[in-house]
Amino acid sequence: MSITYKKAKVLSNEKIVDGIFKLVCEDENSIKAGQFYMLKLDGQTLLPRPISICEKTGNEITFLYAVVGKGTEEFSKLRAGEEIALTGPLGNGFNLEEELGKVAIVAGGIGTAPMVEVAKRLREKNNKEIIDVYAGFRDEVYLIEELKEYANKVDVTTNTGKHGHKGFVTEIFKPEEYDTVLCCGPEMMMKAVVEMCKKKNVKIYLSMEKHMACGVGACLVCTCKTKDGYKRSCKDGPIFDGDYVEL
């Protein structure tokens, strides 16, 4: 399968907290909240990296990424005016056109990134809609001010207690107060949130963040287990019904 990358101009690439960078590039594509791009450089690391769309404004696209290996370390050295290769948008995105009622966004760590565009699109759809955010982090927090711009409230937890409630985000989240839950973060956290929602009969959708090599369903690296067997997170997802995925 042929995959086409195009060069995109880097507008900014800044560290927002230790190990977390915000990359802004030029991009003219229309996107859906929850989709992702594959990003790569002509550096030592050959494989591209899947990065969720944090926000899309006009012809600018924002990505948030954690520096966890050689590939993302190379990304962190990019400067304004340089170029990076992109292909996307990829994946299905959240279906925000259906009636979701009172919405809770539950996110953990870098899984908070795609929820900025999600919250923005929900707010644009209905200015009276209730959108509450529950965001969990290890120590440092980020994107809170951006989320506050669109959400009715943003509650934060940290493992260390440096910000907000000390503990896990599941300790402050009450699914029975919502009609729909949108979730992204570490798999163990999402599993706990799904179980909480099932007990209260609350609809939940997940954004499955998996390691990917191609992003278009050809390599089968990113499979996740579902009620119908294994599905590709990139091509069939990354958004799945929480009742459908087996975590």
TrEMBL record:
<keyword id="KW-0479">Metal-binding</keyword>
<keyword id="KW-0285">Flavoprotein</keyword>
<dbReference type="InterPro" id="IPR017927">
    <property type="entry name" value="FAD-bd_FR_type"/>
</dbReference>
<dbReference type="InterPro" id="IPR019480">
    <property type="entry name" value="Dihydroorotate_DH_Fe-S-bd"/>
</dbReference>
<comment type="subunit">
    <text>Heterotetramer of 2 PyrK and 2 PyrD type B subunits.</text>
</comment>
<dbReference type="InterPro" id="IPR001433">
    <property type="entry name" value="OxRdtase_FAD/NAD-bd"/>
</dbReference>
<dbReference type="GO" id="GO:0044205">
    <property type="term" value="P:'de novo' UMP biosynthetic process"/>
</dbReference>
<keyword id="KW-0274">FAD</keyword>
<feature type="binding site">
    <location>
        <begin position="49"/>
        <end position="52"/>
    </location>
    <ligand>
        <name>FAD</name>
    </ligand>
</feature>
<dbReference type="InterPro" id="IPR050353">
    <property type="entry name" value="PyrK_electron_transfer"/>
</dbReference>
<dbReference type="InterPro" id="IPR012165">
    <property type="entry name" value="Cyt_c3_hydrogenase_gsu"/>
</dbReference>
<dbReference type="InterPro" id="IPR037117">
    <property type="entry name" value="Dihydroorotate_DH_ele_sf"/>
</dbReference>
<keyword id="KW-0665">Pyrimidine biosynthesis</keyword>
<keyword id="KW-0411">Iron-sulfur</keyword>
<feature type="binding site">
    <location>
        <position position="234"/>
    </location>
    <ligand>
        <name>[2Fe-2S] cluster</name>
    </ligand>
</feature>
<feature type="domain" description="FAD-binding FR-type">
    <location>
        <begin position="3"/>
        <end position="96"/>
    </location>
</feature>
<dbReference type="Pfam" id="PF00175">
    <property type="entry name" value="NAD_binding_1"/>
</dbReference>
<comment type="function">
    <text>Responsible for channeling the electrons from the oxidation of dihydroorotate from the FMN redox center in the PyrD type B subunit to the ultimate electron acceptor NAD(+).</text>
</comment>
<feature type="binding site">
    <location>
        <position position="219"/>
    </location>
    <ligand>
        <name>[2Fe-2S] cluster</name>
    </ligand>
</feature>
<feature type="binding site">
    <location>
        <position position="222"/>
    </location>
    <ligand>
        <name>[2Fe-2S] cluster</name>
    </ligand>
</feature>
<keyword id="KW-0249">Electron transport</keyword>
<dbReference type="InterPro" id="IPR017938">
    <property type="entry name" value="Riboflavin_synthase-like_b-brl"/>
</dbReference>
<keyword id="KW-0813">Transport</keyword>
<keyword id="KW-0408">Iron</keyword>
<dbReference type="GO" id="GO:0051537">
    <property type="term" value="F:2 iron, 2 sulfur cluster binding"/>
</dbReference>
<protein>
    <recommendedName>
        <fullName>Dihydroorotate dehydrogenase B (NAD(+)), electron transfer subunit</fullName>
    </recommendedName>
</protein>
<dbReference type="GO" id="GO:0016491">
    <property type="term" value="F:oxidoreductase activity"/>
</dbReference>
<keyword id="KW-0001">2Fe-2S</keyword>
<feature type="binding site">
    <location>
        <begin position="71"/>
        <end position="72"/>
    </location>
    <ligand>
        <name>FAD</name>
    </ligand>
</feature>
<feature type="binding site">
    <location>
        <position position="214"/>
    </location>
    <ligand>
        <name>[2Fe-2S] cluster</name>
    </ligand>
</feature>
<comment type="similarity">
    <text>Belongs to the PyrK family.</text>
</comment>
<dbReference type="GO" id="GO:0046872">
    <property type="term" value="F:metal ion binding"/>
</dbReference>
<comment type="pathway">
    <text>Pyrimidine metabolism; UMP biosynthesis via de novo pathway; orotate from (S)-dihydroorotate (NAD(+) route): step 1/1.</text>
</comment>
<dbReference type="GO" id="GO:0009055">
    <property type="term" value="F:electron transfer activity"/>
</dbReference>
<dbReference type="InterPro" id="IPR023455">
    <property type="entry name" value="Dihydroorotate_DHASE_ETsu"/>
</dbReference>
<dbReference type="GO" id="GO:0050660">
    <property type="term" value="F:flavin adenine dinucleotide binding"/>
</dbReference>
<dbReference type="InterPro" id="IPR039261">
    <property type="entry name" value="FNR_nucleotide-bd"/>
</dbReference>
<dbReference type="Pfam" id="PF10418">
    <property type="entry name" value="DHODB_Fe-S_bind"/>
</dbReference>
